[in-house]
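Progress note, sequence design subtask.
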């Protein structure tokens, strides 16, 4: 750090210069992100609450109430008005809290968690941190957990089963209904990672069951900073009931709140306010429109790719398209050189594109044009 401070204008100009190095969602070149440009009202709300700290709830009763209201809205969307939970930094922290609760509930010496091979990589970190052994289940031909392999892997050490509603790579949705039946039968915690799909599926006319409507679902990750268009970072973790969160409670004697449930201590209320603002501003109708538009772009891209002659890996269930060519790594490299940000997924040898709200029809057309 320099000895004496600089002028305000100089500081801001320096920052602006560095900001220019970043890529911007508006350019339409970012086709690999599951986050998007937050809604303008999210930005306004974020600024209003930028100094609020939910780690010390007693100081910020207004922000605390806002978090409760956002959780209640998410609970309603996910078919459980009794759900309780928190807004956190993202899917990773939300998944961590869920597995921490599940592990604490089971109280076994050598805990194991069952997940599909397609589970998000955050679970690798989490298993490492919590010292829980991951047991991976193969996928079926639609890249979903092969449930026929589930039962034989459940044993006395199983603390949780994880299913995904919208995998990061392909947007696949595991057969949560069947998984839930196994979870009920074996009395095992079922965590649904709907970080991405949780704010898409409730707005579709026909969607597979994945939420608290299913009796076996104990917790759900749902991230407002992905398809919810809230500020970054805003993740969400919902538990079926109040006793679940008691499993992750910590006393915080010197703070006004007296207890915390989240991994983070100091925690921004700005994210919480941003989610509240977008939820209220858009309502169900607004989200339906956004989701429909993303799915329309998904369809256009899929059709265009097939017309050019690429192999689309599976019929997209959400706004994610994965495709292959004869030499997919080379193609990914060329696209990168042309300024497109796409993901190459080695385990499926495919290029994966996420059609987020910042991707407009024109960008899809430009991408297809470059591909052809
Ligand atoms: C299904 C799924 N789970 C978890 C995560 C992790 O979320 P975050 O990066 O917000 O921690 C992601 C991220 O894209 C995801 O797609």
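Output:
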């Amino acid at each position: 750090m320099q000895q004496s401070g600089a002028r305000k204008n100089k500081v801001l100009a320096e920052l602006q210069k560095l900001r220019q190095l970043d890529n911007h969602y508006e350019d339409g070149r970012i086709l690999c992100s599951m986050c998007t440009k937050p809604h303008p009202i999210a930005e306004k709300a974020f600024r209003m609450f930028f100094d609020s700290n939910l780690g010390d709830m007693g100081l910020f009763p207004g922000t605390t109430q806002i978090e409760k209201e956002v959780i209640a809205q998410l609970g309603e969307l996910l078919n459980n008005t009794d759900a309780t939970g928190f807004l956190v930094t993202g899917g990773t922290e939300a998944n961590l809290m869920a597995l921490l609760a599940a592990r604490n509930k089971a109280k076994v010496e050598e805990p194991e968690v069952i997940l599909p091979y397609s589970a998000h990589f955050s679970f690798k970190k989490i298993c490492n941190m919590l010292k829980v052994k991951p047991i991976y289940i193969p996928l079926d031909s639609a890249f979903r957990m092969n449930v026929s392999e589930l039962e034989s892997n459940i044993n006395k050490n199983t603390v949780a089963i994880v299913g995904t509603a919208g995998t990061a790579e392909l947007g696949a949705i595991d057969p949560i209904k069947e998984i839930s039946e196994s979870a009920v039968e074996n009395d095992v915690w079922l965590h649904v990672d709907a970080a991405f799909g949780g704010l898409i599926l409730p707005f579709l006319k026909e969607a597979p069951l994945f939420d608290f409507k299913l009796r076996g679902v104990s917790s759900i990750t749902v991230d407002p900073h992905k398809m919810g268009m809230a500020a970054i970072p805003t993740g969400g973790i919902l538990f079926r009931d109040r006793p679940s969160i008691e499993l992750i409670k910590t006393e915080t004697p010197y703070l006004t709140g007296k207890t915390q449930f989240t991994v983070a201590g100091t925690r921004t209320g700005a994210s919480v306010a941003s989610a509240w603002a977008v939820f209220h501003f858009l309502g169900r109708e607004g989200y339906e429109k956004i989701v429909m538009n993303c799915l329309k772009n998904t369809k256009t891209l899929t059709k265009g790719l097939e017309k050019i002659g690429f192999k689309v890996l599976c019929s997209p269930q959400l706004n994610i398209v994965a495709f292959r060519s004869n030499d997919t790594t080379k193609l990914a490299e060329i696209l990168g050189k042309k300024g497109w940000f796409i993901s190459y997924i080695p385990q499926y040898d495919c290029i994966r594109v996420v059609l987020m709200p910042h991707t407009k029809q024109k960008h899809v057309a430009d991408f297809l044009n470059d591909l052809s």
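The chain has a mean pLDDT of 98. Work on this subtask will continue into the next period as scheduled.
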